[in-house]
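Q: Convert this sequence to structure tokens.
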Amino acid sequence: ELGFRTHERGTVVTIEGPRFSTRAESKMFRLWGADVINMSVATEVCLAVEAGIPYGAVAMSTDYDCWKEDEAIVTWQEILKVFEQNAANVKKLLIQCVERMGR
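A:
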């Protein structure tokens, strides 16, 4: 309904930030079956479970990682621009979820 491309499932690899993975790491993670590489989800899940807090993740990508060699190299400014768009999109998603819970 919101026009977002979605996937119901995926495998996340969390790396220690703040840094991006190297091309070799990214290729290795892809070979392991990773769909998304990030810096925080696994840590957040562990802390939420320990605290007894229900947790769900929404991953909104900012760029193809460096494993995709036919894509142009992205700049930090480009990543931030997509991040801002994703922030607006997640607000729309949350509003729709809350509205549906009220039905």
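The CA atoms of residues 4 and 70 lie 24 Å apart.
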